[in-house]
Amino acid sequence: MTFSTLILLAAGKRISIKDRIIVQQDFHHTAPRDIKSIITRVFLYTLILEGIGAFSLFFRWLREYSWLESICKAVFHSVSAFCNAGFSLFSGSFLSFRGDIWINLTIMLLIILGGVGFLVLDEVRNIFFRLIKRKKIKVSLHTELVMIITAVLILLPSLIFLAVEWNQALAGFSLKDKVFSSFFQIVTPRTAGFNTLNLNLLSLPIIFLLIMLMFIGASPGSTGGGVKTCTIGVIFAYLKSKITARESVNVFYRTIPVELVTKAFTVVTLAILIIFLSSFLLFLTQPGLAMKEILFEVFSAFGTVGLSLGITPRLNDFGKIIIIFTMYIGRIGPLTLLYAFSREKSYGRFEYAEETVMIG
Questions:
Q1: Beta-bridge partner residues of 254
Q2: The domain containing residue 88 runs over which residues?
Q3: How many structural domains is the chain composed of?
């Protein structure tokens, strides 16, 4: 959508109001802004950050490869990391660079920056320049939620990973390798797909933890998949409001609109239904595979992560078709799929008589 819109704008074509709103809503949560400015900044942030990442990786790999090979590997992996693609030119992903601080930090930063979303990148840039000019700053609720939830989803699971796998998958590693492996393997499941550890050596609690991270995914308006961080944030805010007996859903002294709460629950419900259906079909058609392998594969496909416990080549044709459709739905988003098959307009202005049912 971004690329095709840029081509149309460059060619001087007119874009309908409806299409403008669709593109703007994908990158901005408030009132519509200038679409040309939005698209231009998306491309600039992408090129600048991927360029810096490629430059960093190039000088590291120049010690081991020729100039041309270093450039190719650096550009490919920088783009793959920022776009949360997870494709690698190395047969073992980043297993051979487990203890390389420079490569670990570069790849993790690219994944995180690509996953927070372009709106957050733009707002952080504005905050930085306002601080330099000593002007008053105001952070949007969206950016606050994304930054806090992203930090929590990196720090807390990394400490859990380190503690659980200390004498298991991380046994025999140096302290530096244990720390970097833990952080790297927690950052990548949120739709990036690289790995510095053999995932089959991980314990069941950590496999379950990675599944949860793949389900949540990145943030809205980013290069990643999943149900998104803000969706989970809104749901937790709603649950907190019910526990504290509040009518409105409040976060950081601001109130979340009811329609956003409904949208958040709809996204999660649809995601769970799609994952449940895909898993059920794989259980039927792949009887020789373990439950943890299938669930990991499906959650990874829905979150467009790319991680696997090694069963992808063993899937039959029907199993691969299921994974393909799961990846497709996960990439476009369950809500987009719902809108595509739902009525554009509601018909009728009548309501039926109310009647209650028991819940819980």
A1: 251
A2: 44-196+203-225
A3: 2
